TrEMBL record:
PROSITE patterns from the UniProt entry: CB, TYR_RECOMBINASE
Family the UniProt entry places it in: Belongs to the 'phage' integrase family.
Pfam families reported for this sequence: Phage_int_M, Phage_integrase
Domain of life: Bacteria
Core-binding (CB) domain ranges (all copies): 76-158
GO BP field: DNA integration; DNA recombination
GO-annotated molecular function: DNA binding
Name recorded for this polypeptide: Site-specific integrase
Phylogenetic classification of the source organism: Bacteria, Bacillati, Bacillota, Bacilli, Bacillales
Domain Tyr recombinase: 179-374
CDD domains in the record: INT_ICEBs1_C_like (cd01189)
Keywords: DNA integration, DNA recombination, DNA-binding
PANTHER family with a match to the protein in the record: PROPHAGE INTEGRASE (PTHR30629), PROPHAGE INTEGRASE INTS-RELATED (PTHR30629:SF2)
Amino acid sequence: MSVKYIKSKKYDDVYSYTTSSGQLLYCFRFKYYRNGKRKELQRSGFNSEKSAYKEMLLRKFELESSDFSKLDSDKISFSKAAELYYQNKLSYWSENTRKRNRGTLDNHLLPILGHIKLNDITATLVQNSVINVKLKELSPKTVQNVYETLSAILNYAVRNDLLNKNRLSHNIFIPSDDKQVIFYDQKTLKRILDKSEELNITYELIIKTLAYSGMRISELLGLKWTDINFNEHTISILRTRKNIDTEKKTKTKNSIRTIYVDPMITELLKEYYLYVYDKAFEKDIKIGINGYVFLGINTLQPISKTVITNMLNTVGKELKIKIHPHAFRHTHATLLLNAGETYHYIAERLGNTPRMIEETYGHHVNPGKRKVANAFSDIMKNEVSEEVSEVIQFKAKTS
């Protein structure tokens, strides 16, 4: 369904629109000329007309004050483009981000590419002279950050007619880090779940849903009320979400699934819906049945991954446990498999393949067969042994 834009009566070039989830947002768009070519600049996702208008004025000022027409695009060097990019971003970055990007330029990019003309920067040059060299001294994750900064500079050059095309896209190989994945034993998980009951109902429900369903955090963020069947105690996982209004398909076709959850989760969801409804009524905000389930406590906007991660970090510090959203998924699979579930049933529940489950957890489990959701609930309801339980770390592929 196409988005309908409504022109603001107060500000020129500012428009309002409604997202697929029913949220009212604002954007701006205006035309300008660069080197004799007509272009259009558009930005969306603003919460108010005024914020969209202020950002638009800043963008117009930057365009008017940046005289790129005096630059010869055939001769401009990477160092010149990098400095233009850096100066353009200064007003948007925090002090820490400025220092980090300045360090990336001065320590990793400018010494290698600074003297090279923009038009001479190819994927082969970057792979051999930047990526492969830096992998010998930096972690793959850090090299990925260096590459992303480089690509952002080239994209900036393209937008400002300093470069015809960014030739790096999809042509650079950076190996991924071997990730040390955390999962919890029964006693540790119970400590986390008990602690969640001291939190706001939003955070309690997030932790318990992750633990009792094994879903990915992006899948949890993408849940809508229409995905919940309170009578059957099921949750349908149909989409993912990362940003406030960025819906995507699930990771794989196998990830589209409907899972049974403990009735305790659906009862808590009912309680949470009433809580959200009351909050929305107080703030005169409309909450629809087609909206996302998990919302920010104060804003009642779709909650972000960052907010959840920060909350888990805070809980982890209090319990002296490293808590990561994906650890609940690994824990869910490991405890179920050790309780006797088969690779096939766990794969269906987690939205993976049996082979992936076996390769990731096979050396930790003794497979069998029982009803999946009830087995997990039984695990958490049983008495925990008195032995000291530790967080177990193991090398595994992130499923």
